[in-house]
Every structure is written in C-alpha cells, then in structure tokens.
Amino acid sequence: MLDSLELKNLQEKAKSIRRNIVEMVYSAVSGHPGGSLSIADVLTVLYFHEMNINVNNPKDENRDRLVLSKGHCSPALYSVLAEKGFFPKEDLNTFRKINSYLQGHPDMKKIPGVDMTSGSLGQGLSVANGMAIAGKLDNKDYRVYCIMGDGEIEEGQIWEAAMTSSKYKLDNLCAIVDNNNLQIDGKIEDVMSPYPINKKFESFGFNVIEIDGHNFEEIINAFEKSKNVKEKPTVIIAKTTKGKGVSYMENQAGWHGKAPNEEEYKLALEELK
Amino acid sequence: MNFENKKATRQSYGEALVELGKENKNVVVLDADLAGATKTNMFLKEFPDRFFDIGIAEQDMIATAAGLSTCGKIPFASTFAVFATGRVYDQIRNSICYPNLNVKICATHCGISVGEDGATHQMLEDINLMRGLPNMTVISPADDTEAKWAVRKASEINGPVYIRFGRASTPIIYDENTKFELGKGIQFGEGTVATIFATGIMVAEALKAKEELEKENINIRVVDIHTIKPIDKELIIKCAKETDKLISIEEHSIIGGLGTAISEVLTDNYPKKLIRLGMKDCFGKSGSASELLKYFELTSNKIIDVVKEELN
Question: Could you tell me the residue ranges of all domains in chain B?
Fold first, then answer.
C-alpha cells in the first residue's frame, strides 16, 4: 500500500514531468504533448516506484526493461529519465534540435536509459516479447514493460505479437495500453475502433487489468497484481485523458502533435504549478 | 571444374546453424511456419528450447528477433526471401538497422529458381531492398561451402546481416578449405577479354561459360561477388582496368542489385560500360527452375553469347 508521503512525492514528480513535457515541446516548436501527458502518471510510477533499474549502469543485464512502443511520446520518457538522473535535466531543452542526442523518437544507441528504439508504431510488443523470451532462456527475473497507444493497437502486428506473448506464457511481460481514446484523425472509435480492447486481449490469452491511468494507487496495485499472475502475460488498460493536466489540451485530438505558442505555454506552466 | 556435385544453399544453412548452435548457446533461431522449407527445422531438432516458431507472422518474427538481440542473443530469423525482406521492410529498417541490432536475416527461396510457385514467391528485389539500408551487411553465397562460411561470418559480425539462400540444388564450387573474406570477391582466372561479375548461383554459370570459352581460346575471368555490401571496390576497379569488357549476372532484378552496386563503384572511380544481365525489370512466372533460368536467360550460354557479341 501507498503511504501518503510516497503518494505526495509521486504526484509532485508527475507534475514536474508534465512541466518538462510542455517545456520540451514548446522549446522544440514540435513534438507530441497530448499522449505524453496522458501516459505521464504511469511512467512516473514505473520509474519511481516499480522498475528495478540502475542509473549508474543503464545497461545492467538484470534490469527491468521498458519499450515505449508509442515512441512519439518521447517527451514523457525523456522527462522521466532526466528526473531519474540518466542525463542532465538541462538537456531536455535540446530535444529535437540538430546537435542533440534527444532525438524526436526514442533512440537506444544515443540516449542513456532508453531500452529500445521506437517510432514506427506497432512493433514494440514484439520487441518486448523478444526481451521477455531472452529473460526466460537465461533464467533471469527481470520484467519487461511495453507501453502502447490505443490508436497504435490498430496495427495488425500488435495482435501477431499478442499471440506470441501468450504462446510463450510470458508472465514476465506487462503491456500497458494508454487508452486516452484519441488519435490524430479523431476518436479511436470513429477512425478505426479497437474496442472492446479488454475482450480482445482476453481472447488472446492475456490477464487483463483495467484502471484509471491517473490514479496512482490503482496503477501501483495493477503492477503488483501483474507480478502474481503466472503462465500468462498481463495487459493493463489504463483509462487516461489525452493532454492531462493542461486544461486546453485535455481531450483534444488537435494537441496530439502540436507545440503551444508563448501564451499557451505560460498558461500550461501556470496550471502545472 | 566438376559441376555435378550439388547441394541447395538452404540445406547448407540448416547444417551450419546446427554447428553454430553447438558452439554458442546465445544463438537462437526464429521461423515463420516454414521451418521445413528453410531447413531451420534441423536446428529445432537439436535445440528445441532455442527455436521459436512465430507462425505466419513475419513482422512479429523480425521485431521479436530485435528484442532478443538487445538481451545478448544472436537471433537468426528465416523465411522465404519475399517475406523476409519486402513484407517486413519497415521492421528491419526501424527496429534492426537503425538501432544497429545484432540480428541475422537468413532468407531462402531467392530468385527465379524458386520455380513452380511463380512470381509471388520468386524474390527478385531483395538485394536492392537490403543493400539500401545503413548498417546492413549483405551476403549472397554461391555454393554450399560459401553459404556455411557466410552463416559463421554473420555470427561474428556485431550488427544486422542479410544472407540470401536458394531453393534449388546447385553445383558445389569451393572445397571446404577455401578461405573467404567478407567484402572480398574471389577471382577465377586472369583472362583479359572480359570480367564476368557474378553472385549466388550465377557464379557456377559464369564458371561454365569461362570453361567453354577457353576451348575457343577466349580467355575471360570470373569474379564471385559474395558480399554485395560492403562491396569489393578494389577488385572491381582492378578488373575494370585489366579487362576489355565488363559483364554482371545475377538472379535478381538488374535494378538495385549486383549490377547496380558495381555500376556505382565504376561511376565513382573508373567510368566504364557494364553489361548487366539479370531480371529485366519484370516478374517471374511458374515453371521448373532450369526452364525458368533458360527462359530468362540466366545461363552460361547467355554469357557466352554476350561475350562473343561484344568481341565482334
């Protein structure tokens, strides 16, 4: 269970991560704030509560791994990694710029703490399966996390991968769907509905947990539960709000991949104080 | 040379994988429901725990291999070339080549000699696709011995490798003590009339042509370009300087394959005409391997004709 001090710390951390996201996208004059803000709480819990990682040895072979399959939400991942100490927070302002190592999408060869390069949607669950299979082969007890977008799961490869997770009984794998209900062209059910997401994953052999993706207690409990399930992969369907924390971005598909202007930027920082 | 002793390079692949598997426990193999045809079932039989049949899901297979490689495994992923490259180009590009991961894509059933299955299964553009990717090494072995070397070499390279194997039985050219070097072509003869640059199963055809032409006192040389990338610039320039005519032959489209790769070297270093033999921007069709090779003029006879035409 979460004590109130830890809860407060996580909430403060998530707020700081949200501020970083807005600053990065503003400074880069491009990037993807909407989905970064929706997944910020889950990522905060993963890196500041759940995952076994070593900042001093980012490639530790026994570490837990995370594949950000929805790679365009790199601002959220980079913010978390910087807050964690993998690289200096000042560098976040170089995001997407010509001489920066902080590429538009996650790059495992350039950025400390990034476990897999991503950006082309639909491939991350397969990669995470590969990592989980390797863990089983080597009798290691690390866990593998894979964050997918709800629009992303329209990609057929996700369902190929879901069969593989299930076939190889990857109970060391925990997938997360960031269910913010929006993709670039609109509501996911209007563009190409992946619903019912829970029943789909269930029928593919997953242990399905549904949570409010902005409730820290629920997030923590879901990861806890996923560890107790044997012989089956877990998927956590996190109900989230796209643009969470910035009033004018919330539930607006238009903020999927757009930077705020100066006025909007100031308002966002005000709201995230 | 005796051209009667034959083996399909996919068979060589299966045998080489088993040897590698014995030596290195990090070698793992993935297939997409074609283990019998690609011969990865030989590895499956020996090392069932390190074999993963991903089913008819090539995209998943390739990206799973990428994940395995990030954890120190050396994955060999196999299916027919048409699926192993075209169908999964984006997975190879973004999840393997860009992060420069240690994945070996070993494709069987390359080229027109696939035979009866027809155009959908005869991959003629794979070298073009794979060669264009940064970080990728591309090997196109000519026979059993070279194919086995290629598999071993691939396991020693820390990065993505594409190897092209054939379905049909083809002549064994090299004895088992032959020394191969990545990126170094193998020259047969010193003839100065023409150089035939060949790759894959066309090397044997070029060697047959060389023998026939010698009977008429026409002395050519043959160069086996087994590594398409990185290509042997030095040897190509040397042959361009030393021989009158340059001809390339490949069981692949003349767009983007061996001929194109040689043309690039010539353009940059020693501009000279190259006659490119191969599939002329067209698809294949059904028929037996030998009928198709004749139909599309991928034979020693065609090489002989072209050399003689050029001499006149």
Answer: 6-171, 186-311
